[in-house]
Amino acid sequence: MKKSAQVLTKGFTLVELLVVIAIIAILAAVVVLIINPLELTRRGRDAARLSDLANLQQAINVAVQEATGSAATILCEGGTVPCPGSSNTGTRNSDGTGWVKVNLSAQKSVSVPTLPVDQLNTVVNHYTYCSDGSGWEINTALESQKESGKAGADGGNEDTLYEVGSDLTLIAASGGSCTY
User: What residues form the membrane-spanning segments (predicted)?
Assistant: First the structure.
């Protein structure tokens, strides 16, 4: 009797493994392009910026309404007019000596223990404050593609910066009370 040799192959060939690895790499690349984690991070920072500016806008409006002194005294606490401030060079004190020159710590309706700063707080990404004694403005640069359209639609004079305040022409590259 003859014995026939049976060859049992177990495992995958090199070609099969390479094909599977290539398919996984292509799927991973597509997922990264669709999700875009960098853009999601930018959106998160922009959401914090928009929230910070909305909270400051509300606090400054309340301070102006509750105050008994002149607008120049309220919007430029202890300083001369115009009074600029920047979050990347000023302090976070909310008593009018920080980068916002309004005494927000004396308010009864809204509590602002410390002034917010941009998460990056660099030369490009920071908050800028300016008041001419009768109006005020705070602006910042938004970095995500989704939120960048808000900068041109906020009613201000700078299409590349998101602006809030009572006079959105104070901070300008040229011609405003506070230039940058």
Answer: 12-35
Report how far residue 167's alpha carbon sits from residue 64's, in angstroms, rounded to the nearest whole number.
14
Q: Can you give the residue range of the structural domain that contains 46?
A: 35-179
Q: How far is 91 from 115, CA to CA, in rounded Å?
A: 8
The dihedral through the CA atoms of 154, 160, 165, 168 has a sign that is negative
Does 97 map to a domain? yes
Asked whether residue 9 is domain-assigned, the answer is no
What is the bridge-based pairing of β-strands 171-172 and 178-179?
Answer: parallel
Give per-residue pLDDT as tens, 136-167: 999 999 999 999 899 989 999 888 999 999 99
**Residue 12 included in any domain:** no
Half-sphere exposure at residue 95, Cβ-oriented, CA atoms within 13 angstroms = 2
| Domain annotation covers residue 22 | no
Total number of domains in the chain? 1
Global pTM exceeds 0.90:
no
Here the tokens at position 22 are 């290539």
Q: How far apart are CA 180 and CA 176, in angstroms?
A: 9
